[in-house]
Write a structure and sequence with these properties.
homodimer, Cobalt-precorrin-4 Transmethylase, domain 1, four-stranded parallel β-sheet, alpha/beta
Chain lengths: 294, 294
């Protein structure tokens, strides 16, 4: 039996950076808070909590502790409120997300109504919309396009959207406006990870997707793999069920952008254990064949 | 038997304007020249020639006569040469085409490589390209997209392209660049005329497309109608063949943006004559049922 991990699995640049910034902060301050979960991975959030980095839901719960801004960013209004509190702020907003925020501010100042391609409830999209200084529309598919004729229109995407959806929406927008300005803010880490997972799923008879069930990009990996082969989405090794291995030869693993390496390692070792092969247990994700360094 | 004319057939705004300007010029000057045919309709060009408005192929043939710039525009270099001759210039460039020229200059000055969607040999495209001050690509379909990664890219279209082709090309360009700026320079007269012809062809068992065989938008009308019903493209009533009418009940007529009304009237009267119905001959295009005023 072969067990392989899709290339580019696990932490993306923005998540890695946010976790590093949080850990640095916890070394400087006895207790810090994050406004909302810093990333969409409950286990990592719990591990940080154990180190004194506590997620809170609202600005009222901060007290006088230093605040870490989550990787998905926060609204402009909330950022201003935070600034007024004059507490230490550690801004762990993913630089790609921050760049999207700058684009929508700049383009709406130039007079472009903004179309945001994304899920209206996702914290990244909620924050992004708050940076628009004028007309804006959040749409997740071509059917939601406003019935209206525009002179100019700008399109920005949630970083974890699929390029196909962006293409479909742009196609439908072309007849609606004289000028259409598209900033492709889809993170390349997202598409690269999706492609690697797709390629591995094609050669596997079981796929295990590891990641937060609240993680948009993890759920997208699940959707891609599930369309091709028997697939399970698990947050931790405890959810793994040994009966899934029956009659399987090629096991593929993949993990979302917010899944820490130690959870991937635990899942791999759990599979080895189920196979009675514990002597080959590993301690780092780099030891898994077909891993991200390949 | 019913004979109907597609709505919006015949001269578009830009052609009407160019012909008016040429006729005004011929009233002021005993002889004028146009650089290339003023519009893509040989019969109208011949009629103007009879009034002393003579098309010439190159700047050397102008002599000292006043020059009319054709509706499709001319290259920037040629315009500069003309200016140096210090002759009277009547610029009959379609204002929509002139606007496209301004867009490519402005966008290329802002650092955007320019993609021109169109036919590289068409005079409008040749002229448009000359206004680019930097990198540019002329492509007529998605397969011609350059294999290259861009930071920014602007897209401009020949005014008579189909929106579907523009959409296909934009879809293929999205993954190639961070920023994509599209100016939809497709003339609405083109799409409106195509749609009316399509609707009439759907209800006809014979379509006659009237217009210059060198006219890009006329050929497009022919292609659309031909895909649905028996269709002929003719430049004048002389090309009409009475055998086409056998067993037909609903005859549809349509005409390109450069087809003068008098040719449409002649074709209509020729059909009446073939039907032995000459007593109902008409003298203006407004008398044809389903005409452009409807």
């Amino acid at each position: 039996m072969k067990i392989r991990l899709a290339k580019n699995s696990g932490f993306c640049f923005g998540v890695k950076r946010a976790i590093n910034m949080a850990e640095d902060a916890s070394a400087r301050y006895p207790e810090t808070v994050t406004l909302g979960p810093i990333i969409h991975n409950p286990q990592m959030v719990q591990r940080l909590k154990d180190r004194g980095i506590v997620p809170v839901e609202s600005i009222e719960d901060i007290g006088s502790k230093p605040v870490i801004i989550r990787s998905h960013g926060i609204t402009r209004g909330l950022k201003e409120e935070l600034d007024n509190l004059q507490l230490p702020i550690i801004d762990a907003t993913c630089p790609y997300v921050a760049s999207s925020q700058q684009y929508v501010t700049q383009l709406s100042r130039e007079g472009f109504p903004i179309v945001i391609v994304g899920n209206r409830d996702h914290p990244e999209v909620v924050a992004l919309k708050s940076y628009v200084e004028g007309e804006s529309y959040i749409i997740s598919n071509p059917r939601e396009i406003p019935v209206k004729r525009f002179i100019r229109l700008a399109v920005i995407s949630q970083t974890t959207q699929s390029i196909e959806n962006l293409q479909d929406i742009v196609t439908a927008l072309i007849p609606c406006t004289k000028e259409l300005r598209i900033i492709n803010t889809i993170c390349s880490a997202t598409s690269v990870r999706q492609e690697s997972s797709y390629l591995l799923a094609r050669e596997s008879d079981l796929m295990i997707v590891i990641g937060g069930k609240n993680s948009s990009n993890t759920r997208m990996l699940f959707k891609i793999c599930q369309s091709m082969v028997e697939t399970y989405l698990i947050e931790t090794s405890e959810e793994f069920d040994s009966t899934w291995l029956e009659k399987k030869e090629n096991i593929g693993l993949t993990a979302g952008a917010s899944t820490p390496d130690w959870i991937i390692v635990e899942v791999y070792n759990k599979i080895l254990k189920c196979l009675g092969n514990e002597q080959h247990s590993i301690s780092s994700v780099e030891e898994i064949p077909g891993n991200k360094e390949e």
